[in-house]
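ok, trying the design again with the full structure, not the truncated one.
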């Protein structure tokens, strides 16, 4: 007998995900991360006709507190290869973030997974926009533009992304850390619904996840961290805004305008210049605040 919580989730999920058994049965390995998704996901995946090996299929505070996404992903990757599964997935304990693994055991970065999901969902989008953070790779915009879909750029914060997902024209939204939103189901991160949608779209397209990812361009994303004392952040941001107005290369490469189809070496050069700039701003802000005191 299906429990009441499962029934309550099945009804709204069915409006966004086709829960009918697929003609091509999916085989997968899913790590529930000791979270509450283990209560409902087995029922929903079984309803879709998916043959799934569940890992950590129970909720426990101890396991959730010790959760390490990389460790769990490596374990699922090994199980996917050993079992010959078509797909692997890791859901975090909160049920909000998703990590995908293909049939060869490749653990995809969140950017790779995002581009793959965009390619799968763009032709079946309910709406003509997707919401993405401003720091997302330009390849995402190119993928959806080919299907006549535009990008609604948002701030990096989760509330900003959720607000954008509530817009009527937005049919999909995603963060850069594995959080995905299906507005037709819920305007918030939901790894369970995203995994079910991924299983459905792969079954409909007849493709393997590896093929979808390999069809996408390789994004060049470089990151640098510059330690900034809390009391200097305001001064640094004000100085950055002033420099953006005066310096064309900074406006082109730091703001929403894109570097374009340049190589990774160019991206590294830009990141190094920005890093030096930030350090100069932090130093200047520290001297200014020191004199002010």
């Amino acid at each position: 007998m299906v429990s009441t919580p499962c029934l309550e989730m099945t009804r709204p999920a069915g409006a966004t995900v086709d829960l009918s058994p697929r003609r091509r049965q999916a085989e997968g390995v899913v790590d529930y991360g000791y979270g509450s998704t283990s209560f409902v996901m087995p029922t929903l995946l079984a309803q879709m006709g998916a043959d799934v090996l569940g890992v950590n299929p129970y909720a426990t505070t101890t396991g959730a507190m010790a959760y390490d996404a990389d460790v769990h992903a490596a374990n699922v990757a090994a199980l996917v290869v050993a079992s010959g599964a078509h797909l692997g997935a890791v859901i975090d304990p909160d049920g909000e973030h998703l990590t995908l693994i293909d049939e060869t055991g490749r653990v995809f970065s969140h950017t790779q997974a995002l581009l793959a999901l965009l390619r799968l969902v763009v032709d079946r989008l309910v709406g003509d926009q997707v919401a993405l953070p401003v720091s997302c790779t330009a390849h995402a915009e190119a993928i959806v533009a080919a299907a006549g879909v535009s990008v609604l750029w948002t701030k990096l914060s989760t509330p900003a992304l959720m607000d954008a997902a509530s817009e009527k024209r937005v049919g999909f939204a995603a963060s850069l850390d594995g959080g995905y939103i299906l507005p037709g189901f819920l305007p918030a991160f939901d790894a369970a619904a995203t995994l079910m949608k991924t299983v459905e779209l792969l079954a409909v397209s007849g493709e393997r996840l590896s093929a979808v990812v390999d069809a996408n361009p390789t994004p060049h994303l470089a990151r640098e961290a510059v330690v900034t004392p809390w009391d200097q952040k305001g001064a640094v941001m004000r100085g950055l805004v002033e420099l953006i107005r005066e310096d064309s290369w900074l406006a082109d490469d730091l703001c929403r305008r894109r570097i374009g189809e340049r190589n990774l070496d160019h991206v590294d050069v830009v990141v190094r210049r920005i890093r030096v700039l930030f350090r100069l701003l932090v130093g200047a802000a520290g001297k200014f605040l020191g004199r002010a005191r």
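Keeping the full-length input from now on. The chain is about 45% helix and 15% strand.
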